[in-house]
Backbone:
């Protein structure tokens, strides 16, 4: 299928059709087939970037279901979002970087998570997708929290607690995180101001 003697147009179409059927297989079988396919494509990976990206997204989903966060993240890292020939749209790149960051956070690796949040930061102003903007803010707040930058995290969580697009229970959860981070922050004017802001919030008094 990916032999150089086969027309690229035909190879791409066959591989695309092949990939659409793989999610119907049991996860353990699909995982083996995905790895085998990626290995076979590798010598001509530049010619099959779109198909490789699709395979990697599906493979990462399987690892995520298995709660194998690190492997899921590393599979997605293999998508050449910036270096390949294919031009990916802003939302696709932003969503993928945020997913990688979230997976590294689940794996308790805030350093790697921060690296991908920083990449997402360069794109988030170009996106008009409100849901992705929220995902970015949540992920960024979590990274700051993990990195023990408690005041900055509290400010981000507090901002999220006012976003009406976010479900009410999640807004209250963000408010709790804001309060928790403020309590953990070092004493000083910023902490005092943040505490004053939170204690004025009627929701904190419930």
Residues:
């Amino acid at each position: 299928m990916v032999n150089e003697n086969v027309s690229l147009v035909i190879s791409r179409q066959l591989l695309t059709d092949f990939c659409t059927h793989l999610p119907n297989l049991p996860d353990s079988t699909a995982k083996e087939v995905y790895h085998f396919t990626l290995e076979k494509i590798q010598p001509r990976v530049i010619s099959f970037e779109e198909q490789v990206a699709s395979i990697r997204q599906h493979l990462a989903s399987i690892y995520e279901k298995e709660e194998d966060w690190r492997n899921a993240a590393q599979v997605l890292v293999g998508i050449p979002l910036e270096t390949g020939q294919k031009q990916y749209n802003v939302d696709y790149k932003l969503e993928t970087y945020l997913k990688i960051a979230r997976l590294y956070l689940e794996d308790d690796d805030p350093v790697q998570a921060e690296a991908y949040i920083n990449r997402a930061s360069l794109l988030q102003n170009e996106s008009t997708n409100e849901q992705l903007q929220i995902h970015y803010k949540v992920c960024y707040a979590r990274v700051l929290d993990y990195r023990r930058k408690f005041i900055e995290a509290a400010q981000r969580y507090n901002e999220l607690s006012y976003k009406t697009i976010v479900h009410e229970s999640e807004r209250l959860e963000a408010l709790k995180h804001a309060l928790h981070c403020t309590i953990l922050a070092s004493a000083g004017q910023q902490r005092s101001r943040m505490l004053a802001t939170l204690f004025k919030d009627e929701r904190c008094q419930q």
